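Entry 12.
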Amino acid sequence: MNFATIKTVGMLGILALLSATATAAPVIDGRALGAAEGYQYSAQIAPSKDADKVPPATVFFAQDAATFDLSVAVIIPLQYVDNTYGIDGDPATHTHFTWQKEQDITKAKEDDHKFNELVGSDKVGFEIALPGASSSSFILDYISFDSMSNMWVGGTALDTGRDDDGVVSMAATSLQYNLNNIAELTTFSPELTYADPMNPGETEYTTVDANLADWIFEVVYEFKIDGSYFNNTLVLSDNGFINGFDMVFDQLHASPHKVGEFNDGTPEEFSALIPTPSSAGMGLFLLVGLAARGLRRKD
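Predicted 3D structure (tokens):
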């Protein structure tokens, strides 16, 4: 392979990388895969209570430069609430539903977190504002059954969801993904290998059944705000929101939950997840240049 061929292949690689970086858009399905599916930035929302016991929620953002659609995913910490539940089981063997308050295994109830409690009331609310546009608020319901589609859904259309201004074009949650794609478990969530049923730690959510290993235990709300709201305005940067845009994590209702609260929080501590096109391209260009330089020396 000569220098000209290496240069051509390298430039094609750079163009492919820049194209992928520029056009990748997150899939709104409740999984929230971060940079792997096109999210550009991460941020944190601190708890409004018990910050010494509950870590911040993680937020992913991506804005499409062509449509101005804003994709958002909010990942609630496992220390606050999780996708574990059960009823009428044995707390000595099921390790996922006695976490609410009682730390004494002899007194723990076996049904502290029921599936129907997730269906009945859990939700999250947001407020957004942008100069030149009306402020808007919306609520995403965590999980409901849609008899029309015969599917489990989360978002603004059913139960506690609300979007009076129609700014949310798409929404999904992690429990929605679990029930529709992993297993329709509406009595018990997957049993864990963790031996102690009291408050499994963040790294101890391993399922006994390997077929259920992809179950998402984090409570995730994922949604897309329609680009028409932004009036051709970009609102994201490494330093946070720009051009006057603001988003407030208005409320998180999880009943029951373990400890802490999340109310009136603002995303902070932004960091880039995907390298900027210029830095990524220059890195690849440098590698191509070094390879070509070595080939020339051999010649």
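Annotation: The mean pLDDT is 79. The chain is about 20% helix and 25% strand.
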